[in-house]
Amino acid sequence: MKVLVLNTGSSSVKYQLFKMPEELVLCSGTIERIGDTEARIRHNSSKCSVDKPLTIPTHKFALKYIVGLLLDKDKGEVQSIEEIEAVGHRVVHGGHTFKSTVEITSEVKSKIKELFTLAPLHNPSNLEGINVAESIFKKAKQAAIFDTSFHQTIPLKAYKYAIPNEFLDNHHIRLFGFHGTSHKYVSQKAIDYLDNKKAKIISIHLGNGCSISAIRNGESKDHSLGFSPFNGLIMGTRSGDIDHTLIFYLVNTLNYELDEVKSILQSKSGMLGLTGFNDLRDIIAEAKRGNKKCKLALEMNAYRIKKYIGSYVAAMNGLDCIIFTAGIGENSKLIREMVCSEMDIFGIELDEEKNNKSKSGILEINKNNSKVKILVIPTNEELEIARQTFDLFK
Ligand code: AMP
Fold first, then answer.
1. What's the pLDDT band for 205 if we cut at 50, 70, 90?
2. Mutational pocket test of ligand 1: of 182, 280, 301, the residue with most ligand atoms within 8 Å of the beta carbon
3. Any idea which positions bind Mg(2+) (predicted)?
4. Do 142 and 227 have their domain in common?
5. Are residues 359 and 241 in the same domain?
6. 313 in a domain, yes or no?
């Protein structure tokens, strides 16, 4: 079965075409900056490689362009559109409704729409991707894979907020957790690597969005992102944990409009708000040049992660393994070093030499005598989505 995986963001589409169950990647690519004058396509397959600027006004246009590449007589991977039997869509927020991967129906789409207010940066574009894919891949089955599903095993004492009961009972206000496909994928890899199904794992996903999960027996037990994907760690543009009374103060005393506060906390805070830069590579380069704001932001970032590690060690009464994953976790030796420094109280001891190595696959970066294994594991959300789509329709 050929399964197309789509991850549709507000201005981008990431895609991979898999042959399942062989898990063979036939092609992959990204279209970025949709609607911008600087839109760009990057496409890779065994037959061709494309990297060029393009005018791409809409998501529909983007997907049609991708289909054109897939169907290309000489360089394409399929001869007819019907060869793609299933499309798996990443959907960020599944609320309390979606506990696992589902086939997309009109009812499913309405529920995803109802959740727009909880994931305003993600769910609208995810649904746009679904609508466009349905109009193009008319015969394919479509599946929604939710970032929140993996966290359905978090116990009540951890997902319930200490606010009046009616908010959970009547309005389902609770911690949901996100980046579930990534945490599931890398923790399963770690379990196989350790050969220990019961391992106590802390999985740290550090990309544009950042989150940390406590995982035991292969199940999520606690998570830093909460009701929506804004809580917890310091992210590219999101503040992570703050005292919520700050919002009242900004509105009631400093006279900000509520929408302005939302935009400040979601799009102008985090590493961007602290430094003026969004990309961690720029921040590290600036810090090396002596930029004090960048240095401090890196320290704050690592400090927040360390605090979560400490609390999850307490929550699980122990720790076997830490995983670093996603763009920053997989690539930034400095952040890994900063997070793991002075953590020997927990049996976490990083080996600097191993941390400086690069390797495809799993990289173990702890000292030989470290009680806790520290693993760098490349995430592969697309493969996890393809697996779940295939399992649903096979
Ligand atoms: P992701 O959301 O997983 O694609 O991660 C994107 C983030 O990874 C970007 O914001 C970059 O800051 C970060 N990143 C990628 N490569 C590196 C690197 N070599 N060093 C530090 N950060 C990196």
1. very high
2. 280
3. 7, 381
4. no
5. yes
6. yes
- The catalytically annotated residue of 51, 147, 169, 344 is 147
Distance, CA of 146 to CA of 248 (rounded, Å):
32
pLDDT over 90 at 371, yes or no: yes
Instruction: Report how far ligand 1's centroid is from the alpha carbon of 79 (Å).
Output: 36
For residues 222 and 140, state if they share a domain. Answer: no
How many structural domains is the chain composed of? 2
Q: What mean pLDDT comes out for the span 313-322? A: 98
Q: What is the pLDDT of residues 166-192, one digit of tens each?
A: 999 999 999 999 999 999 999 999 999
DSSP codes, 186-243: HHHHHHHHHT-TT-EEEEEEESSSEEEEEEETTEEEEES--SSTTSSS--SS---S--
Ligand 1 site residues (CB inside 6 A) read 207-208, 236, 279-281, 326-328, 331-332
Residues 370 and 256 in one domain: yes
Q: Is residue 168 part of a domain?
A: no
pLDDT of residue 38: 83
* pLDDT per position as a tens digit, 77-120: 999 999 999 999 999 999 989 999 999 999 999 999 999 988 88
- Which residue, judged by its Cα, is nearest atom 4 of ligand 1? 327
Same domain, 109 and 242: no
Give domain status of residue 337, yes or no.
Answer: yes
The answer to whether the annotation marks 14 as part of a ligand binding site is yes
Give residue 208 CA to ligand 1 midpoint distance, Å: 7
Which band of pLDDT confidence, cut at 50, 70 and 90, is reported for residue 70? very high
What's the CA gap between 120 and 259, in Å, rounded?
12
Phi, psi of 51 (to 5 degrees): -150, 100
Distance 305 CA to ligand 1 centre (A): 16
**243 annotated active-site:** no
Domain that holds residue 371: 197-376
257-265 contacts: CB < 8 A, separation 24 or more? 265/230, 265/238, 265/239
105 and 226 co-located in one domain: no
Q: Please tell me whether residues 134 and 232 are part of one structural domain.
A: no
